[in-house]
Design a protein that fits this description.
Elements: E1 2-12, E2 15-26, E3 30-34, H1 41-49, E4 56-61, E5 64-65, H2 71-74, E6 79-81, H3 94-99, H4 110-115, H5 118-137, H6 153-166, E7 171-175, H7 183-198, E8 202-206, H8 210-216, E9 219-224, E10 227-232, H9 234-239, H10 241-251
Parallel strand pairs: 3-8, 3-9, 6-7, 7-8
Antiparallel strand pairs: 1-2, 1-4, 4-5, 9-10
Helix pairs in contact: 5-6
The chain binds adenosine-5'-triphosphate.
């Protein structure tokens, strides 16, 4: 059970944002993608989730080629994601934002929900109970009634992670989820990522904090100017001179 990205190229006019990128994400594993700004990390996520159309290459999820499917159909394949800059309706509360994540799992009709049939009520209760668990896990319970516009960006990112987790994905793609979080919040997020992997979810993580990557990821892919520079374990990557020159040198991290 894997996501397999093979030789994917994405162009925007004259800019090649991603060139011949390949990776394999297994369920139950955490794979990190690093690279300087503009190296193609978000474009890679967009190519997997259908928000960017590859000029070449394939994306296969659990042996089914999905690169010809529109983004909304890929969600049905159990691929959830977060964005570097999440966008929510500012008036939506934290709880409502997470409840939206259950939409994919809904089995009762809108009419049954409106009429509050027993099965619709039972489903709603199941979603609310799970929502409470997720809010607790991510230490968001105290903010459940707050509107999204009232939260700092770090916590908005956490709400987006919570919404993606509510989706019960097979694979979760997290774009810099720890940016702007306090150390204790980062720790709790790491714990959540590990828990997801233990439950069999494949986690693809874009992250600048290499300590966090070291702690979490089994494998790291390094991008540079849209191409894959190298890949390996965090330990081998950290010692690689090309990585030190292009990544640490350019970001100072
Ligand atoms: N929609 C777009 N239209 C035109 N160019 C784009 C578009 N999206 C990305 N690019 C370009 O593609 C390249 C890769 O961008 P991308 O956002 O994937 O990099 P990144 O590694 O995620 O960067 P960052 O760390 O800053 O988020 C950059 O040169 C960027 O300017």
């Amino acid at each position: 059970m894997t996501i397999e990205v093979k030789d994917v190229t994405v162009r925007f006019g004259g800019v090649t944002a991603l060139k011949d990128a390949s990776l394999t994400l297994e369920r139950g594993k955490i794979l990190a993608v690093v690279g300087p700004n503009g190296s193609g990390k978000s474009t890679l996520f967009n190519a997997i989730t259908g928000m960017a159309k590859p000029a070449a290459g394939t994306v296969v999820v659990d042996a089914k080629r999905i690169d010809d499917l529109p983004a909304y159909k890929r969600i049905a394949w159990g691929v959830a994601r977060t964005f570097q800059t999440p966008r929510f309706d500012p008036k939506v509360t934290v709880e409502e934002a997470v409840m939206c994540g259950f939409f994919r799992l809904r089995r009762t009709s809108i009419m049954a929900s409106l009429l509050r049939t027993p099965s619709a009520a039972a489903e709603e209760k199941r979603f609310r109970d799970r929502c409470n668990e997720i809010l607790d896990d991510l230490k968001l319970s105290g903010f459940r009634s707050q509107q999204m516009s009232e939260l700092p960006m770090g916590r908005v990112r956490l709400v987006e992670v919570a919404r993606a987790v509510a989706n019960e994905p097979k694979y979760i793609l997290l774009d810099e989820p720890a940016a702007g979080l306090a150390v204790d919040e980062q720790r709790m997020l790491s714990h959540e990522m590990r828990r997801l992997a233990e439950r069999g979810v494949g986690v693809l993580l874009v992250e600048h904090n290499f300590n966090l990557i070291r702690e979490l990821a089994e494998h790291v892919v390094v991008l540079k100017e849209g191409s894959m520079l190298l890949e390996g374990t965090p330990e081998t990557i950290a010692k690689n001179q090309a990585f030190i020159d292009t990544y640490l040198g350019s970001t100072g991290r």
